[in-house]
Design goal:
Elements (H helix, E strand, L loop, with lengths): L1 E5 L4 H12 L3 E5 L1 H4 L4 H9 L3 E3 L12 E4 L8 H8 L4 E3 H11 L1 E6 L4 H14 L5 E3 L17 E2 L5 E5 L14 E4 L9 H14 L3 E5 L3 H4 L8 E5 L8 E9 L2 E6 L2 E5 L4 H16 L4 H8 L10 E6 L2 E6 L4 H11 L6 E6 L3 H17 L6 E5 L14 H10 L3 E5 L5 H8 L5 E6 L5 H11 L1
Parallel strand pairs: 1-2, 1-4, 2-3, 4-5, 6-9, 6-10, 7-9, 10-11, 11-12, 12-13, 17-21, 18-19, 18-21, 19-20
Antiparallel strand pairs: 7-8, 13-14, 14-15, 16-17
């Protein structure tokens, strides 16, 4: 079969393209980022597998293509898409192919509005470490390298039956999945309202075959308990009953210590939210046949995922982090982890998309107002725009204005390139910097530029 992936460099598309290629199919594709010279490491990874990359101008889309693959983020006016329609090619959404892959195996689907990328990576790490060799299709890059001949990847081609995937609710594609095991980390405002999200997740639970893992500390997920006869719950709260309980939680310089049902462990990643993620992953592994003690031991060697509070480096006693936080709940979790009373936190937050920013504006303002202190500095470049027809009736400057009214040190940058020098001129030893935002693969470059400027 000949596949053509439009937007093949995207974190969700690239993992599926790798799977399809390793199954022996002919794979080609294009990506706007590749045309701009960005995301070169992913381009190399795909080309090393034999994937052919072309400019996104429609010239490589031919009549002998069996399946033309698009994501929900790809718009109809893109030349490749126009050409595929002119030729009458079979067009499939990324999520449809992911569902087919999931249903071919014993599927473990990780869902929720926050934490699912890290939980997917954690489940994959546990199963891999315990010899179950899963297929893992994730929305983030593993920091652990499982094949010494390969760079860190968002994909693992295991040799056994389990297939772990990140199930996205933002585009409604979660409706396609019928997993054996499902996890719902939490349910909060993101790309959709709670009114839209509740039936999506309720039906997802009903479609799960073997068992469900739910967060007892989230009101919305706790409301789903009882729908599926085989449900495991997890909690970090001392006053909350759950099947998997985290206690004695102690942050350390190298991560966080805690106990799971009395079993001690240490995570090499920061933040209490990662304790919740670990509990969810342990629950999924338990339903897959891995005892809690083995899962806990496996997680002690987990190094995290790229752009999830990833430490970029340290200069002059100043640590720079790169983070994918892009909804109010994720922003709050990262701010709580990084905030220090005696030093400043410099937060560079690039909102993604005009519609999501419009939906979550009040949540953003509340999160930044509540979880930052008087020394902290908030820097906002303009909303990330990937092209296409959108209503541009909101700006990152609107967030800045609301935060200034609330007494915050907030600044708007029409030119993002000015941020490294701004930070370097003001920051002091002991302070921290975090770059936050989604979908823009150049944000990591911004974090590295800030580190260099410091």
């Amino acid at each position: 079969m000949k596949y053509y992936f439009c937007g093949i460099g995207g974190i969700g598309m690239s993992s599926i393209a790798q799977y399809v290629r390793l199954k022996g199919h002919d794979v080609a594709g294009s990506d706007r980022a590749f045309d701009l010279g960005d995301n070169e490491s992913m381009r190399r990874k795909l080309e090393n597998l034999g994937v052919r990359i072309f400019p996104q101008n429609g010239s490589a889309v031919t009549v002998d293509t069996d399946i033309f693959v698009v994501s929900t983020a790809v718009e109809s006016q893109i030349p490749d898409v126009k050409r595929a329609r002119e030729l009458g090619l079979k067009i499939q959404k990324r999520a449809e192919i992911l569902a087919e892959i999931l249903h071919t195996h014993t599927g473990i689907a990780i869902a929720g509005t926050s934490g699912k990328t890290t939980i997917t990576a954690m489940v994959g790490h546990i199963l891999t470490t315990c010899g179950l060799s899963p297929i893992v299709i994730n929305g983030g890059i593993f920091i652990n390298t499982y094949d010494v001949s390969q760079e860190p990847s968002n994909f693992l081609m295991g040799q056994k039956d389990f297939c772990v995937v990140e199930a996205d609710e933002s585009d409604g594609s979660i409706e396609l999945y019928h997993p054996a095991i499902s996890v719902i980390s939490n349910i909060s405002l993101d790309h959709k309202s709670l009114t839209e999200l509740r039936p999506l997740f309720r039906d997802f639970v009903k479609r799960t075959e073997k068992g469900v893992i739910l967060n007892a500390d989230c009101d919305e997920t706790r409301a789903l308990v009882g729908i599926h006869p085989q449900t495991l719950t997890f909690s970090c709260r001392p006053d909350q009953a759950a099947d998997l309980k985290a206690t004695d939680i102690i942050p350390t310089d190298s991560g966080i210590d805690f106990k799971v049902n009395g079993i001690s462990t240490h995570l090499q990643v920061l933040g209490k939210h990662n304790v919740e993620n670990a509990l969810a992953a342990i629950g999924a592994a338990l339903l897959a046949g891995v005892p809690v003690e083995q899962a806990v031991q496996a997680l002690s060697s987990f190094l995290g995922t790229k752009r999830r509070l990833e430490k970029i480096g340290v200069a002059r006693g100043i640590t720079v982090y790169d983070d994918y936080a892009h909804n109010p709940e994720k922003v709050a979790a990262s701010l709580c982890t990084l905030h220090q009373e005696n030093h400043a936190l410099y937060v560079i937050f690039q909102p993604h998309g005009f519609a999501p920013t419009r939906l979550m504006k009040e949540g953003y303002v509340e999160a930044f107002s509540r979880y930052t202190g008087p020394k902290d500095v908030l820097l906002f470049p303009e909303i990330f725009y990937q092209g296409g027809t959108v209503v541009k009736d909101i700006s990152a400057q609107d967030l800045v204005e609301d935060l200034i009214v609330r007494g915050k040190q907030a600044f708007f940058f029409e030119n993002r390139a000015a941020i490294p020098a701004f930070v370097a001129e003001r920051i002091q030893p002991g302070d921290r910097v975090v770059v936050m935002g989604a979908r823009d693969c150049t944000l990591t470059d911004l974090a590295k530029d800030i580190l260099k400027s410091i």
